[in-house]
Amino acid sequence: MDKIQEPLDAAAFCRPPMQFRGVPFFAWNCKLDRALLLREIDCFREMGFGGFCIHVRTGLATPYMGTEFMATVRQCEVYGKERGMRTWLYDEDRWPSGAAGGEVTKNPELRSRHLLFTRVPYGGDTSALPPLPYSRAGNARTENGKLMCRYDISFLPDGTLRSAKKLAPEETAQGTAWYAYLETQAPEAWYNNQTYIDVLNPKATEAFLAKTHELYKKLLGAEFGAAVPAIFCDEPQTPRRLCLPESFAFADVTLPWTERLAQLYEQEYSANLWDDLPLLLWDLPRGGSAPARWRWHKLLTDCFEIGFLKPYGDWCVKNHLGFTGHLMEEPTLQSQTAATGDAMRCYESFTLPGIDMLCGNFEFTTVKQCASVKNQMGRSGMLSETYGVTGWDFDFRSHKLHGDWQAALGVTQRVLHLAWAGMAGESKRDYPATLNYQSPWYREYGGVETHFARVAEALTRGRPIVHLAVLHPIESFWLVYGSAASTSLRREQLDSDFQNLTKWLLFGGVDFDFISEALLPKLCQKSGAPLAVGQMQYDMVLVPNCETLRSTTLGILRAFQTAGGRLVFLGTVPKRVDAELSAAPAALAEKCEILPFNRQCVLEAAEPLREVSLRGADGRLTENFLYQLRQDGEVRWLFLAHGAEPPCRDVVESQEVTVTLRGRWSVQCWDTMSGEISTLPVRYLPQNKTRLHWKAYAYDSLLLRLTPAQQGDDAASAAESTKQTALGTEIPISEQVTVHLPEPNAMLLDFAEFALDGEPYRKKQEILRIDNILRKELRLPQRTDSVAQPWTVQAKPPVHKLRLRFAVQSDVRVENIRLTLEQPENVRLFCNGQEIPVHVNGWWVDHAIHTVPLPVLEPGRTVLEAELPFGEQTNLEWLYLLGDFGVRAVGAKAVLTAPIHSLTFGNIVPQGLPFYGGNLEYEIPFTLPQAGRVTAQAAHYRGHLMTFSLDGSVPQQVFLPPYVWHSSHLKAGSHVLRITLFGNRFNQFGPLHLFDSAWKYMGPGSWRSQGGQWSDEWQFRRTGILSRPVLTFFAE
């Protein structure tokens, strides 16, 4: 994202340029059809997006980076550019980045490798070993390596090390023998039957850049930095740094490795890594942690940066292409230690550092770590891959809330997860919902996107105002990263402190940046006070419950304190320097403040730094708002946003917030939803402060422009609004109203009897389970998301015949009914034993879901049978009946009923529309006795949004509290209000057999749940306008 220097004017704010708009992941998950892709780009423009990020996903059938693929990339880039849109690149066939679709790791020397530490030598009985946790970077025992060392390990009764001896070849262990093997990752279907790369090896990165970036440079290099602004690097990671469950465990453990690691360790620390290896896994007596553990994690993190991220970033800078994306598992000390070592250390090479925020999570530490580096290095913005893994029913309210809170913490560029090119086969379960034409609300999204473009327009200007720095405790966590039984309590406490401190400060209204000890020496070239870290300056530094400090950190903090800077130690004072026991931190702490680790002490200590105070009507600090304050010349921008879901989204409640600002300011509200600008009344306080009031509803945000107050502003600003709300009269409306369905209704056929190759029919099963059963029997790969890409697999004609039998029950005669088929070629259909022709007559929801007409269904039982070829490339999917009918669904049984032309307000599922996923148009007639105005409030709904249209007028969106629509002046007489509820596809394509309603991770496995998570009975979600809208008349 470009760094903006010129002032923001009203015209640009009203119509924000494309560069500030989000871009969806454009999921290329099928055989590429250029005409279809170009039409989808038009959809993105209609949705308000500023471009698209081409992202290969499971299902790609066009050879990756081949001639056709690259020609399609080029055509999409040209087509987008002609429409003012930018094409963002993605660097991999799926993820994580590095293997170039498996091309790099065809060279075994570049494959991911790890050290296996085990009690069972190669060839021994491994049946009693617990499985290792899976990671894409490879942690499994492969037995394809070589023995590097044997150890004799003995323990004290408490599980700490008594001794750890490296054995000579002829020696026998007196205690427990442990073996260290250097292994490479085994080939996996996910990497197209290759492996991930060794990210610690610069040669692997060089090969990756040659097979990906150089090819894109040849194709699009002239557009780098312009129409092609950046390339997205997704989840680079090391093999997991694992710990034993307890010291005496009979278990394997793996550690990341690369060929030169032992040599680098000796060069860095003048110590032998093979001698120190046991100290990484086991603790010393009396709760001791060996410095070797800290050294090991530091070296690995440095190797990851030097081996992968730095050469990647250097290439991008040299070629004028932005380097963006995100790391693996950023949020906790535990997760980042295991996956990358230190997230902040890794952001240095990104020109547009980024994060991902999936599942509707609120990971404040993830955002704050990245934003801190962004601030300190003066990067122009920060990216977030967001909204993914949330399911079909993640509505506009949630889109706004989660985009808002991330913007308040520094995100300026949203990459929206995700827009499917197609829905064939497994693609429809690839972390929905899709931000494309397959979602019935897609044409309405432009308002949401314009809101975020306006926010980004303001928050890319100037610099953030932050006075407080917090020393990041990741390196202290490394020290206690030992066996779970002996270190988990301390680890959990450090992580809890890390999360709590972040929330105390952010929700207490005190912004801060984290300081990375690894980056500090580079960014702090001049010691003193205030503490200058890159482009930021801090008046106060908190050291939170750290175990160790780097010697460089200690020196910088000592100079800061000596120069008058305020240095505060929270909780315990570090006892180590560079992981070695030292009295130096305590000596420094004696000259500083040492405070208990609690919210009160933290906020009281930070109070002198406060720029913004947010208090409720009771005078207490609010606990649900986040903010960002920026200095843009003489102007300041303040953005306020909610940082949590409301307790109940169906209850309309407002919150009276008193906003107090340091300084005397004239305040304008720049309304990011409407584009309107208005001056707000303020009151000036004697302490050189400005106060205003905000009536905040759930999901609201507020963008304020602050300009220095001029003399004479006091009287004009002090007046508060005294406008009274007029009283109206409620208009009665009918309980039952006419409804229109823009799409055909649907009945799901997801259970069938089945027979393979002429065998007798077996008991009915759910379709995806049938697929699993048959693939297991036929020894075919299971059809999940973790399969080799179609472009790498030689197509094999299916040699089996599968027959499915469905029983359809109907109360009524149904005409003009259609059946969906995804692979209609070579399918035979039978209705009550009579074969019927298969003539494709259209598509439904997605171009890959074809429809074929069926004969009239008479009342009673109809037997439908489908005979189809079955093989490795077969997509065995749910089928649907489509037409003008109703459906009565109870438990696991569904019956066709009379068409639905009217509804009562409430859940549509039991009213004949259980599987309907389109929009609903409610017609509400009413009569006015005289001229006036009308409001309508529909506070209880489940859908993405509503629009209101009176007497055929242009529809107006409503999706935020207080959920009220206002009419213009109306004449007396009859009127019709049409409320359109924009639906979602959960009750059509969602995981309807997943029993856990609180399940958050809406990935492919959600459709294949097992055990207590599975239910044969459908688990629908409420849809519709759930209670009668309230219409109120105001006479004029």
TrEMBL record:
InterPro entries (alphabetical): Class_I_gatase-like (IPR029062), Ulvan_degrading_GH (IPR053161)
The protein's name: Alpha-L-rhamnosidase
Organism encoding this protein: Caproicibacterium amylolyticum
